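testing teh design pipeline on a random one, pls ignore if ur not involved
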């Protein structure tokens, strides 16, 4: 089966109006034989014409607006209800069609731009038609009906079944749309939350999110006396990479290096982009293991071969480490770690400098 045909078929069966149109076409097509059986020429030909109109509507409904399509459908149903009641002298279930349309007008138009206006324009005529049928029924109440009792019984049963199935379908369809809308809203919320907390280039958490983790670590120290360590690092000679290979290469270096760092550190360590080519690590505790992990990462980065447009090269990074052991404020730890990074930059780069306050 052709993919486009499959997609069109899926869109058709997941469109409420198209389903109602299809059901209306089938019912009127079947009614042709029903009215022929009872020998009613007027409703026989009316059903043929109505089935033909519904078929044309099915073929062109995607080319006209949702609201216009629904108005055409409502007019056809209301017209059938009026003509059937006048012709047979008894509604025989057509009043259920008009009552069901009141619910259908809401369920089928709530997603339009102005659902209240749409509901008003389609529901009011339907209510008037229903009043007309009730009045006409009592005015012409007689035991001498033009058709056998079975004619009215069958029509009434079919009307009850059809309107029940239609309303069940429309309610379940509305529920499905609500569930899908909630899922989309949740997905959008999750995407916005991710974007607010992550750097778009490196996919690491951003400076704002790092501050939240730093604040949490500081609170943990205040409550439980647990120390934390901070490591600030940046890529050595990053400007020369941009000047030599271009800024797109610099972006690729930032991304690939960030992925390497994220995949190489312990899961309980937070790493994020601090700004530019600078990154920050937040370690729980201040043991020698922190220094060992950073040293291992430094070696790994310096040995990692990067490639960009068939060019291969390596980079190095300098790291400055401090801890909260001798400081009361997080800002002071950050300044001390940054000072250690500056010492590493001035003494040869590609090294790990541990603060005396660590």
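output:
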């Amino acid at each position: 089966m052709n993919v486009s045909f499959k997609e069109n078929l899926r869109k058709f069966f997941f469109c409420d109006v198209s389903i109602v149109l299809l059901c209306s076409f089938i019912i009127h097509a079947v009614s042709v034989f029903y009215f022929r059986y009872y020998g009613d020429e007027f409703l026989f030909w009316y059903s043929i014409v109505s089935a033909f109109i519904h078929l044309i509507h099915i073929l062109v409904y995607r080319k006209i607006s949702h609201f216009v399509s629904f108005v055409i459908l409502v007019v056809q149903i209301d017209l059938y209800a009026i003509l059937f009641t006048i012709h047979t002298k008894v509604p025989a279930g057509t009043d259920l069609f008009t009552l069901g349309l009141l619910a259908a007008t809401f369920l089928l138009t709530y997603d339009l731009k102005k659902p209240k206006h749409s509901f008003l324009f389609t529901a009011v005529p339907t209510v008037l038609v229903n009043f007309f049928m009730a009045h006409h029924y009592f005015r012409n109440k007689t035991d001498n009906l033009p058709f056998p009792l079975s004619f009215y019984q069958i029509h009434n049963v079919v009307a009850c079944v059809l309107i029940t199935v239609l309303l069940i379908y429309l309610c379940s369809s509305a529920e499905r749309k609500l569930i899908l809308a909630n899922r989309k809203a949740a997905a959008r919320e999750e995407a916005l939350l991710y974007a607010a907390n992550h750097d778009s280039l490196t996919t690491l958490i951003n400076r704002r999110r790092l501050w939240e983790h730093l604040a949490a670590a500081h609170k943990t120290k205040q409550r439980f006396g647990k120390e934390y360590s901070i490591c600030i690092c940046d890529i050595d000679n990053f400007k020369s990479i941009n000047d030599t290979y271009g800024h797109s290469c610099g972006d690729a270096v930032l991304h690939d290096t960030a992925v390497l760092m994220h995949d190489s550190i312990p899961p309980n360590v937070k790493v994020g982009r601090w700004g530019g080519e600078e990154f920050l690590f937040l370690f729980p505790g201040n043991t020698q293991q922190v220094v060992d992990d950073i040293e291992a990462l430094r070696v790994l980065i310096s040995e990692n071969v990067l490639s960009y447009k068939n060019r291969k090269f390596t980079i190095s990074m300098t790291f400055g480490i401090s801890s909260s052991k001798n400081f009361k404020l997080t800002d002071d730890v950050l300044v001390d770690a940054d000072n250690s990074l500056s010492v590493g930059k001035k003494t040869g780069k590609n090294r790990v400098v541990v603060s005396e306050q660590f």
